[in-house]
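Section 3.1 - Work completed
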Amino acid sequence: MNIALNQLNNVICLVLLTAFLQCCVGVDHIDTKEPVLSLTSENTGAFGLRPTIISSEEIHQLTTTQTEDFLTFMASPRNAHLKPHRRLYSYLEKIISGFTYQKTTYTAAQAIELNSGNCLSLAIMTTALAKAANLEIGYQLMNDVPVFELNDTVIEKGVHIRTVLYDSEWVQRDEFLALSRPVIKIDYFPTGRQRFIANLNENDYLAMYYQNEAAEALAQNDLNSAYWFSIEMLKHVPNNSQAINMLAVINRRAGNLEIAEKLYLVGIEFADEKLTLLKNYRGLLSSAGRTEEAERIKIQLNSMNDPSPFNWFRLAVLAYDEGDFIEAIRYYNKAIELAPYFHEAHLGIAQSNYQVGKLRSAENALKRALDNVYKVSTRNLYQAKLVSLRKEIYN
């Protein structure tokens, strides 16, 4: 990891230097054996001055009134029969009644005041309360797989964070074997389609906040803010593939193709999750007319043995969103090879085949999806889509 961080620092230094080396020096002439600028001390980057970026302490800071209300609830004799982590959970239930979903990621104080936000906002709120009560909290990354409509695009997709509250009073007894500590898992928007991906540490969790902010800034074409929020992600998780990819996308959009390529190459070498980086790097090569290199990346991508069906699934969704339906099918099949029961991937194949006019293939894939689903409401949805598709095929 230290090697990855040093390499990445070198590349980020190149990004920072582009503000000063517009026409004087090409990146090929810069010695990158040692970092040129420190990420933690410089406030001027390739896209402008560093904006004010909220600290992790400020993200979780509650107002005085909010803190007093919570601690009063925790100390109330009426709640003394509950263990501390259950008391916190009960308080959450009380204050989020009527909570409305918003795409915005709010701080803890904002989420409580507005009674709204996204999944990460609620995780932030839970973390702030746990910190105020000195309770241990954990995080889990969950994959909420997409729902497809045969005639429409993906209507829901993405990963989200689930918080885990630990029982602070639990003690391991020697005469009993406990497989895990007692916990309360808080999933604010359960859909029945979630899959556990990984446990996260606090730095991973904080990087998700800055990732959301970077993505929002990029959507507004605010490259400077997107850039600095991505840098903040890397301070928490040095080999974060999302941050590296974001920086490459930012530089590609700004026309800094050489910097973008260097970022992709570093990410592909050192990041944990390489699939999205490889796919985007292939896109950069293709757009530059470097067809042979792009083809080599495609071969590398297709020959990879990533053990997670969800990584292939997300890559398939990305290909689908870009209108590359044949490639989407290839990646969905990769996911199915690892998880034959993955009915959402079968459904993705049906959707992709439908888009390219292969209705019989879509029918077969939809039948396989139906064979692998057990939730009644989902089975009914698939069955209705199959009936609709068959009418289109045979009428």
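Second construct:
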Amino acid sequence: MSAPKKVVLAYSGGLDTSIILKWLQEEFGAEVVTFTADLGQGEELGPAREKALKAGVKADEIFIEDVREEFVRDYVFPMFRANTVYEGLYLLGTSIARPLIAKRQIEIAHQTGADAVCHGATGKGNDQVRFELSYFALDPDIRVVAPWREWSFKGRADLVAYAEKHGIQVTADKRGEAPFSVDANLLHTSSEGKVLEDPWEDAPDIVYQRTNSPESAPDEPQYVTIGFERGDAVSVDGEELSPAALLTKLNELGKVHGVGRLDLLENRFVGMKSRGVYETPGGTILLAAHRGVEQVTLDRGAGHLKDELMPRYAELIYNGFWFSPEREMLQAAIDESQKMVTGEVRLKLYKGSVNVVGRRSPNSLYSLQHVTFEDDAGAYDQKDAEGFIRLNALRLRLQARRDRKAGKND
């Protein structure tokens, strides 16, 4: 395969991607275009531009973009309409960010005439799969460069030596092994590796960066009301907010009350188990609130079907199939279910917990007249239940008679 001529690199400006940038130039003689996405990771992105310029990237081929609104509106919110969790617990904060980064890389490649894209994911993880499945779904002929599967570096010492040889700044904390690796965006933080590799040992306090410990959270609960329109959150305590601003607000509330911590031993798509420690304060509140508004607006059949589809939908996102036809088919069904999911949910936040304590909607399916223990004014004839039960019991009675008869003949 011929060497790529021009490569769009997913670039953070950190040590690894700075080394990758130089390696692309040295190994292939390729021109490099950098793309840095502001996903709400909380880092200063200005230095990435200066580092890219110093590395020889043209000024008009350094792309640093604030994609927080697009991230929440077009990726996080559609996922939350399905109440999506992987393996019953994980809110997919890393998984859902990768398709957006990949999409912008492909768009920039087309814009700049690049013939390849590059990511910094390792050959052991899920992210390599997520990036590359997205790349190929959007451009089946794109060349993909995955340095961790191609270069000869064996570990951190090799990277530092290469950086020093090529004048790449290495901060003091990067000369030794980092205690754990971190990925962050507006939805969550993810920590893996090193001090977290023994699944029996507690995660040390330094791992948690986005939430107070539940033990140190306020002794008084806080109540919050979240408004929804057609399945998406639109307001907090009556204040209308944009998608990114709303998630930021919920993150702030969740941080104070220690909401959203998860220590998970999960099954990676590539076949191994790994331990991840996640903090998803706003997302945890949002998930509880969305389920709360569905409780009052969603028909039983539709709600139960959504719950059956959700694990498959979650697995598609976790495994990197955001741009697959089956994910889009499921999304269409999920979005159809949300047309009447409008209303408000009141929640109580207290020492790591979030509980729905109230819900109301102009589209409510809750009928007090039918459910009341008091006089229902003829809304429901309790005698109808007898026929309902006898019909549902028919097959059970027939089986019981057969089995009793068979038992007598033994």
